[in-house]
Each structure stands twice: as C-alpha cells, then as structure tokens.
Amino acid sequence: MKRIAVALLLVATACSGSATTGGGPKGEILVFAAASLTESFTAIGSVFERAHPGAHIRFNFGPSDGLAAGITEGGGADVFASASADPMEAVARSPGVLDRALFARNRLVVIVPRDNPAHIGSLSDITRAGLKLAIAAPGVPAGTYTRQMLEKAKLTLHSAPSNEVDDKSVVQKVVLGEVDAGVVYTTDVSPSVSSAVTIIVIPDVVNVLASYPIAVVAGSKNVSLARSFVAYVLDGGRAILRAAGFLSPT
Amino acid sequence: MNREGERAVVAPPRGVLVLAAFGVAFVVLPVAGLAIRAPWSDLGSLSSHGARTALGVSLVVTGGAVALALLFGLPAAIVLARGRFRGRALVRGIVLLPIVLPPVVGGIGLLAALGRRGLLGRPLEAIGIRLPFTTGAAILAAAFVATPLFVLAVEGGLRSIDPRLEQAASAMGASRWYVLRRVTLPLLRPQIIAGVVIAAARALGEFGATITFAGNIAGRTQTLPLSVYQTLQSDPGGAILQALLLVAISLAAMIALRGRLLSP
C-alpha cells in the first residue's frame, strides 16, 4: 500500500490546483471493475473525489465476466473496467459502450507460499504431479490468460488445479498456504501480501500480457461524470496504476 | 418453551453420547480455528471505516429482509397451513425452494426477473425503478433466502394450534379477522419470534444471491459476509475478526432462541 499511497499523494497535490475552481461534473457513479484493480482503483477513486468536490465514485469489484453479465442483465453500471477484451465485447453488444480505451496491461507470475513447501523454482516445476495448484477458472480473464501462457510454454499440468472464481482468490489460497503454487497477475502481489509469498517470474517469451479496457456504459444516468472518470484513469490515474505494478497500455 | 424435556428422562446410551461429541466438535472446530487464528491485538480494526460500513449495511439489509418475511411470509404460512385448495403441495414446495437452492441460482433468478431485461424489470425500468445493484436488491436477495425459513417456523406453529379454539371463537360470532387477530396470532407468538430470529440469522449470513443480484458495493450492498470475502484477499487477519463478529451475532441469536425451534 505504501507505493500506492505515495503516488496518491503526488497525484493529489498535482490536482489540487485545478480542483478549487468548483465546476465539473457532480453526483454519483457506479464503476464495475475487475478484481485485480481493487487496490489501484480504490486509490484512483479517492484521488478523483478529492479533485472533484461533489463527485462520488462507488465500486463493484469482481471477476470481469461476472461483472459483464451483471451489467447486461442488471444494468446500473456507469463505467466498466475489464481485465480482458471479451467481457468488454459482451457489454459493448448490450447495452453498448462509449469512450472505450485500453488503460493498462498486466503480466502473469507464479507465486508460492514463503516457505515454498513443494520447492518450486521455475515455471516448469508447476507441471509436476502431486502438487496442489490454484489458478483462475476458465472464462475468467486471469484463467484464460493462464491457459494461453501454459500453451505458449508448451506445458501440461500433471496435477488437477483448483479453479478459483478470480485471481484474488488464487492469491488468498497461496497466502494461507493451502496450495503449493498459483498463477496470478504481477499486480496481485500487493505490498500487503508480498511478505507471505515468493514470486517466480514467467519469462517474457512465454508470458501473456493482459490488456485492460475501460469504457462508459451506454445508458449511464451521469455520462458527464462517467466520462470524466474514464479520462482521469487514462491520464492522472496512470501514476497510481504504474505504482501498483501495471504496465502502460502500449 | 415447554420444560417437560428437563423432567424425568431416560439418559441416552453411551454410544450416542460419543457420536454426539463428534457432532458438536464438527461445528466447534472451525469456529475454534477462527478464534485461534484471529489477530486479537488488532481487534481495533473492527472499528475501521470499512468494517463499520459493512456492519451498517448488514443491519439495514437484515432488518429489511425480516420486514419482508413478516409482511409476506406470515400470510403465506397462514394460507399454506389453513387454506384448502388444489396444488397446495406444489405451492408449498415452490415457497420453500430457496432453502435447498444454491443462493447463486437465486441471484441469477432475481436478475432474470427484476433485471434490465427481466420479466418485471422492464416495466419497472419504464417507471424509473432500477433494482439490481442497489441496497433494495440486497434486501430482496436476503428476503429470498430468509422468508422460507420464517414460513416453515410459523407454519409448524399453526399446525400445532388446536383448531377447536378458533372454531369456538367463530361459533360465538367472531369474524375471521377477529379470530386471526385475537386467537390465532397470540397463540402463534413464540413461533413468530422464532421465525424472525432464524430468518434474521439467515439474512445476516447471505452471500451468493447478494453478490450476484446486488453486487459488492461498499456502503450500499457490501454486507459483512461480502466484506469478509473481500478483506480476506488483502488482510486475512482483519477478515477473520469480521468473521468472528458474524459468528458472535449469530450465536447470540441462536442462544436467544433456545429450544423454541423444536417446541410444538
């Protein structure tokens, strides 16, 4: 959290000059965001609120595919930030999106509990039989990327992994020491969990880069605030995203 | 309620006692595990903004769900226990379905009924009401899982009331409303209280239907169980403390109930 807090302060002071004018969109919006964005978007939201008095940002964090289904079936979202293209495609079909743009990329890593009970030293070690593995379920962006990465590395798992609802649940299982290894995003290893796990880097040649699109959801009751938040994520929010370990979108 | 069980009873055989010890341990062990893992020195984190907000949402949602269970569940129980109509077994089965249904399925059903493209969602949207991902949605999700338990408790009570009491009142010229208000409901009081407590405990713990239909929005739909789930990802210790808070509230409710659920 420390890195994010510093970035937050920097951005806050940078914004405070323009914030006093008082204009700009007001009201409340609901942002549906991928679970992997929990820490950084919470930080971006509070900096944005400080820079825009009268504006309130609420978040609904969860697996991107579930959020997309919620938006399509339930509505109510003003902004959607997804961890991959497919859920955004689904929302673009119904109810539709505006101002769609890529705002970050993420990279996969293997994490093991600090005491590394299964002595895992490289990516190929996770294919061993008899391991307890946790990866995100197929269909969840993190799960899809994990499977693409394994295919790219020509690796086959010889122990059936536990399919978790999202990447954050994988982190949780590793932090608690309930599994020998898990595959998550670099950014999931936030300062609050980094002391409990060891990171094993996945070589760039086989790694898969996750691209994060963001957009205003059609039918939003406060399009001006939603647009202004999306613009902020693409601009002022970058420092916070970078501090959390995200890569720039291009 | 009745204290007969505390008088002259034949003690159960020793074998039953041993198995009973396992049965109790089965429930006690996970709770003990939580208590042992809990970072008690961080107890102050329970008063953090996030935890307090979640507790507040939980209380509003539980209160709302219990109100709905009373408003609609009580009449439903009366009709199921006293009504004579075809298909009663079917209606009863449907009303009690949420007890055995996975809550996530309930959440999807609520979206299909009240969502943007849902059965009732479309006309509601036309008059400017959008339910999913609001506190109202969290209340409905909790009511969906809690109401059947209330109905079950009250219906059992109704069946145990001697019908001659109601018949006597009726024969002396009391109207149906009068019989219901002055005879049936007072006799039902213990079961209504039991039903309220068990429905409240269930509503308090609701997770699956809530996250599906109402989302996980801090200050609006993020109840204590959802907060436990989200906190577990970044702060396992804090999550355990919140979980123990839930355990304490539910345990207090169950103790308050004592044997009421069993009494006729």
Give a topology summary.
The complex is a heterodimer of chains A (250) and B (264).
Chain A: H1 2-19, E1 27-34, H2 38-51, E2 55-62, H3 64-74, E3 79-81, H4 85-93, E4 97-113, E5 133-136, H5 141-152, E6 162-164, H6 167-175, E7 181-185, H7 191-194, E8 197-201, E9 209-217, H8 223-234, H9 238-243
Parallel strand pairs in A: 1-2, 1-3, 5-6, 5-7
Antiparallel strand pairs in A: 3-9, 4-7, 4-8, 4-9
Helix pairs in contact in A: 1-2, 3-4
Chain B: H1 14-37, H2 49-82, H3 88-96, H4 103-114, H5 121-126, H6 135-160, H7 163-171, H8 176-205, H9 208-213, H10 224-234, H11 236-257
Helix pairs in contact in B: 1-11, 2-6, 2-8, 2-10, 4-6, 6-8, 7-8, 8-11, 10-11
Looking at this structure, what is the CATH superfamily of chain B?
Answer: MetI-like
Low-pLDDT segments of chain A: 13-21
Compute the number of strand runs of chain B. Answer: 0
CATH top-level class of chain B: Mainly Alpha
- Tell me the quaternary state: heterodimer
Residue share in helix of chain B: over 70%
* Rg from alpha-carbon coordinates of chain B: 21 Å
CATH fold category name of the largest domain in chain A = D-Maltodextrin-Binding Protein, domain 2
CATH superfamily of the largest domain in chain A: Periplasmic binding protein-like II
> What portion of residues of chain B belong to β-strands?
under 5%
Describe this structure in words.
The complex is a heterodimer of chains A (250) and B (264). Chain A contains 9 helices and 9 strands. Chain A is an alpha/beta fold and 250 residues long. Chain A has 2 domains: 2-104 and 212-244, Periplasmic binding protein-like II (D-Maltodextrin-Binding Protein, domain 2, 3-Layer(aba) Sandwich); 106-209, D-Maltodextrin-Binding Protein, domain 2 (3-Layer(aba) Sandwich). In chain A, helix 3 packs parallel to helix 4 (85-93). The longest helix of chain A has 18 residues, at 2-19. Chain B has a single domain (48-256), classed as MetI-like (MetI-like fold, Orthogonal Bundle), CATH 1.10.3720. In chain B, 72% of the residues lie in helices and 0% in strands. Chain B has helices at residues 14-37, 49-82, 88-96, 103-114, 121-126, 135-160, 163-171, 176-205, 208-213, 224-234, 236-257. The longest helix of chain B is centred in the first third of the chain and has 34 residues, at 49-82.
